[in-house]
Write a structure and sequence with these properties.
Layout lengths: L2 E6 L8 E4 L6 H6 L4 E6 L8 H7 L3 E3 L4 H16 L3 E4 L10 E2 L7 H7 L3 E9 L17 H9 L4 E7 L10 H17 L6 E2 L1
Parallel strand pairs: 1-8, 2-5, 2-7, 3-4, 3-5, 6-9
Antiparallel strand pairs: 7-8
Helix pairs in contact: 3-4
Length: about 200
């Protein structure tokens, strides 16, 4: 895809829960380029062309959004993976953005890390164009079809992807809410540098 990946910070040692901002489906192979982790994704992705197959092959756990029973099942699967010394990555915004802002973080899945005392590693992902500014074209434009989106990305000039890996958060006794806030604060601080982020909700 013409991506140049630059990593800042130490590579975490499994098991950890990677918590990252979410701009593109490219976030998944980008994270996989430096740590092997299963992902949590909305159930609809299972039926996407190409990406659905890749998600299933990548040991993804699928979540039916808005379904409390599905959330319980996913939480139990995540806790089992941590007990097997396997890492998991989540996008707590719950959906992609255009990269210009950061959504509130949902904390439900982070509970699995707290209950198993698995370190939470915040990760900020930044797409930069050749001028060192935010590359806004990596996200979906309107509701374009997935394959059309892929072909458009292939035509982009080389894009640099910065992975800013924060320190492992282990303040488990402070609770899920506190760990979620700490993770989001780290990611927000990284994205605010050099005017990369326009705003935060």
């Amino acid at each position: 895809m013409g991506l140049k990946v630059v990593i800042h910070g130490d590579r975490p040692v499994s098991p950890v829960m990677v918590v990252a901002n979410h701009v593109s489906w490219l976030d998944i192979p980008i994270i996989h380029s430096w740590i092997l982790a299963g992902f949590v994704a909305k159930n609809e992705i299972k039926y996407w062309p190409v990406l659905g197959w890749l998600a299933m092959a990548g040991d993804t756990v699928f979540l039916h959004r808005g379904n409390s029973e599905s959330r319980k099942t996913v939480l139990n699967k995540l806790k089992k993976r941590f007990s097997q010394h396997r890492s998991v990555a989540i996008f707590p915004e719950g959906t992609v953005t255009d990269g210009s802002y950061l959504r509130p973080f949902h904390r439900q899945l982070i509970r699995a890390a707290v209950e198993t005392r698995t370190p939470v590693v915040p990760v900020a992902i930044k797409f930069l164009n050749q001028q060192g500014q935010r590359e806004s074209r990596v996200g979906f434009i309107d509701d374009e079809p997935f394959l059309q989106h892929v072909f458009r990305l292939l035509k982009l000039p080389q894009t640099t992807v910065e992975i800013h890996c924060g320190p492992a958060l282990t303040q488990f006794d402070a609770g899920t809410r506190t760990l979620t806030v700490l993770a989001r604060n780290y990611i927000e601080q990284q994205l605010l540098q050099d005017d990369y982020l326009s705003s935060a909700i």
